[in-house]
Design goal:
- By secondary structure, the protein is α/β, with parallel strands linked by helices.
- The protein has two domains: 2-116, Response regulator (Rossmann fold, 3-Layer(aba) Sandwich), CATH 3.40.50.2300; 135-238, LytTr DNA-binding domain (OB fold (Dihydrolipoamide Acetyltransferase, E2P)), CATH 2.40.50.1020.
- 27% of the residues lie in helices and 32% in strands.
- The protein has helices at 10-20, 35-45, 61-67, 85-90, 103-116, 177-181, 228-238, and strands at residues 2-6, 27-32, 49-53, 74-79, 95-98, 135-140, 143-148, 152-158, 161-166, 172-173, 189-193, 196-199, 203-208, 214-218, 223-226.
- The strands form four sheets. It has a five-stranded parallel sheet with strand order 2-1-3-4-5, sandwiched between helices. A five-stranded antiparallel sheet has the order 10-9-8-12-11.
- Helix 2 (35-45) crosses helix 3.
- The chain is globular and about 55 Å long.
Length: 240
């Protein structure tokens, strides 16, 4: 797996490089010192994984993730401060490591990473993705549903969990939005923003929104904001 180290502190990058040398499946393909540098290197090098510091000169690591074009690499945050942990998991981070990085915590983070990877022979192809006529088993606590995919109108990220909206229900599932999105057909489901995926068949209305974005109204009353970047992609996808 190709990794990019993003940290304004050279000593921190060197220490992480030293720790990762013990993990042969992690290939460090570059380093970046701030958000602008990182954005350029993500575009050029196309890493699978970011080791991302939170606080850097100019803009923080969260700002970088908001600027990246999909697909966004997997992320393990590294920071000296623990107050950003909740926000980090809102961005679907695989893990959050405090500096100086403990080798055992790094091992645990990489185990999560390996568990997240699609194993050989299990890669998701267009045929493997769920079609609208397929059904999925959904469970929350003692409640179970067998839900037609076409009935799922919205999926919302809540940290490492995803809330799935269908019929009159919205259970929270212990799976990340990224993992669930991998099973959905992009012909029918669209990433509206970093926290929400919509079923295009449920779009009931569209209106202009702030800063060149769009406000999408779904059947049933839910409203979803599209950023300017996602609004442009939405227009291209839905135009003749």
């Amino acid at each position: 797996m190709k990794a990019l180290l993003i940290d304004d502190e050279r000593l921190a990058r060197n220490e992480l490089r030293r720790l990762l040398a013990a993990h042969a499946d992690i290939q460090i393909i570059g380093e970046a010192v701030d958000v602008e540098d990182a954005r350029e290197k993500v575009a050029a090098l196309k890493p699978d994984l970011l080791f991302l510091d939170v606080q850097m000169p100019g803009a923080d690591g969260f700002a970088l993730l908001e600027q990246l074009e999909a697909p966004i690499p997997l992320v393990i945050f590294t920071t000296a401060y623990d107050e950003f942990a909740v926000k980090a998991f809102e961005f679907n981070a695989l893990d959050y490591l405090l500096k100086p990085v403990d080798p055992n915590r790094l091992v645990a983070a990489l185990e999560k990473l390996r568990g997240h990877e699609i194993r050989p022979g299990e890669a998701t192809t267009g045929r493997d993705r769920l079609g609208l006529d397929d059904k999925v088993f959904v469970r929350e606590g003692d409640h179970c549903w067998f839900v037609p995919v076409k009935n799922i109108r919205l999926l919302e990220s809540e940290g490492n969990y995803t809330r799935v909206h269908f019929d009159d229900h919205k259970p929270q599932l212990f799976r990340s939005l990224i993992a669930m999105e991998e099973r959905l057909d992009t012909k029918h489901f669209f990433r509206a923003n970093r926290k929400q995926v919509i079923n295009l068949a449920w779009v009931d209305g569209i209106e202009p929104w702030f800063s060149g974005g769009l406000l999408v109204k779904l059947k049933g009353g839910l409203k979803v904001e599209l950023s300017r970047r996602q609004a442009q992609e939405f227009r291209e996808k839905m135009s003749l």
